[in-house]
Design goal:
alpha/beta; 4-stranded mixed beta sheet; two-stranded parallel ribbon; globular
């Protein structure tokens, strides 16, 4: 569990003072990539499932994980066609699902909408310095695509 809020606020809102669930506190906030990189010592080297806290979806976790394992990708992001590119940026993917980059909000280029569920291998975060801020989808994953390391968009 990686909290993007200060731990005191978490405790105040939830009433949880102690918890058996490992928590990776981000002070200061490290973003979606930096926060995950900070949590790697807790999560370990095996691929792990990441679900954004504001995500409500019917994505098949089993199919997402199977796609990740079959492909050998470093990261596999659940996606759906981006039907509102005027509101959301999108993922770019080749016809085989290989992640090739991102486009910004308003782009006329057809894209996929990342739904906030992904399988991540710790090696996908290797270039992010421990404790440094980074954004996964906008910075870390496009760098993987540019260096021809495998990432996937699972539709």
């Amino acid at each position: 569990f990686s909290s993007r809020r200060r731990h005191t606020r978490f405790r105040n809102v939830t009433g949880v003072q102690t918890c058996a669930l490992p928590i990776s506190w981000e002070v200061p906030l490290l973003g979606s990539g930096g926060g995950l990189r900070r949590a790697v010592p807790i999560l370990g080297r095996s691929p792990f499932l990441v679900v954004n806290g504001d995500t409500l979806t019917d994505v098949s976790i089993a199919a997402l994980v199977a796609d990740h394992e079959r492909s050998g990708a470093l990261v596999t992001m659940a996606a759906t066609p981006n039907t509102e590119p005027h509101r959301y940026g999108g993922l770019l993917a080749a016809s085989d699902g290989t992640f090739t980059g991102v486009v910004g909000r308003g782009s006329p280029t057809p894209s996929l909408h990342f739904v906030g569920v992904q399988v991540v291998s710790a090696d996908a975060l290797a270039a992010v310095p421990y404790g440094a801020p980074a954004e996964s989808v906008r910075e870390v994953y496009p760098a993987l695509a540019a260096s021809r390391q495998i990432g996937r968009a699972h539709v």
